[in-house]
Design brief:
Length: about 160
């Protein structure tokens, strides 16, 4: 059993290294585009389940993600409309691609907090958080979404860029 645990740890490290390599490769090869977040919001937000998410103000963005909106070119956040919801959409337009790491860390922290919040009783929510959470980084644009339509939102984001 101990050997299997070591093997799993090694596999996890290798997978993390591969993920970092792919992110760096994809970020470097992303075409430069200058679409506004308003346009991205127009194609992605309607795919959220109606009534399940609400648009956030700057205070809520700081509370949920710890991000200061004035540090970025543009940010749009839709967060769950109820305490039992997980439907979420975050769109960020960076000033510089060097900011991506901080945003990705904030996304990872938010996802971990949500998983912990529903651990043990929110079976449907936990399943959505584990299986329907998407983070996409394309040049100066970052998408994070959770929900039933996460893949459709991701595709709309990719098509718009």
């Amino acid at each position: 059993m101990k050997w299997k645990l070591s093997f799993l740890e090694l596999a996890r490290i290798a997978l993390a290294a591969l993920t970092v390599f792919l992110l760096i490769f994809l970020m470097g090869s992303a075409p430069e585009t200058n679409i506004s977040l308003e346009e991205l919001e127009t194609v992605t937000a309607p795919r959220l389940l109606e009534g399940e998410a609400q648009k956030a103000d700057e205070r809520m963005l700081r509370r949920l993600y710890g991000l200061n909106p004035s540090d970025y070119a543009e940010i749009v956040l839709y967060y769950p409309a109820s305490n039992m919801g997980v439907e979420e959409l975050l769109l960020v337009k960076l000033n510089d691609t060097a900011q991506a790491e901080a945003v990705e860390a904030a996304i990872a922290a938010r996802l971990a907090a949500q998983k912990q919040s529903f651990d043990g009783y929110g079976v449907e929510q936990t399943a959505l958080l584990n299986n329907n959470a998407v983070t996409e980084v394309r040049g100066r644009y970052i998408l994070f979404t959770v929900g039933v339509n996460a893949q459709a939102i991701r595709q709309a984001f990719m098509d718009a860029l």
